[in-house]
Specification:
Distance between the termini: 95 Å
Number of domains: 3
Number of strands: 2
Strand content: 5-15%
Low-confidence stretches: none
Strand order of the largest sheet: 1-2
Radius of gyration: 27 Å
Shape: rod-shaped
Largest sheet: 2 strands, antiparallel
Length: about 130
């Protein structure tokens, strides 16, 4: 084989590998993680059903993924920030529910729907 033939074979092999790479990239697009509808959190007070759609949908709170997941990327999910990060004890800025109000809304709603647990009197849960 002469030098010209070797260069031609190397060029053709490179062109084939380039084409295979382009086709593979186009044929297998990056998988974008879909957001969950609801998430079950295990807490010391029991399981809590978190509505991901209420927080993320534009019709509701319209939060961006990075608002709760600071290091968020489409590649992987990491644990979100604490609910108390937004629903703190004192603040009600921008219509944000206080932590106690958010918890009461969530807990009371589920308990009333299921007909379980104290929902009539504060003292059934709280010592005053």
């Amino acid at each position: 084989m002469n030098r010209k033939t070797e260069k031609y074979i190397a060029f053709c092999a490179g062109a084939v590998l380039f084409c295979v790479g382009v086709v593979s990239y186009a044929a297998f697009p990056k998988i974008i993680m879909e957001r969950p509808v609801r998430i079950m959190f295990q807490t010391s007070g029991g399981n809590v059903l978190f509505s991901h759609n209420v927080h993320a949908d534009k019709e509701n709170y319209g939060l961006d993924c990075a608002d709760c997941h600071p290091a968020w990327s489409n590649d992987e999910a990491e644990r979100p920030g604490s609910c108390s990060g937004c629903h703190n004890v004192k603040s009600t800025e921008d219509g944000m529910l206080k932590r106690s109000d958010a918890l009461h809304t969530l807990c009371r709603g589920c308990h009333e729907e299921g007909g379980h647990g104290p929902v009539e009197k504060c003292t059934d849960c709280h010592v005053l």
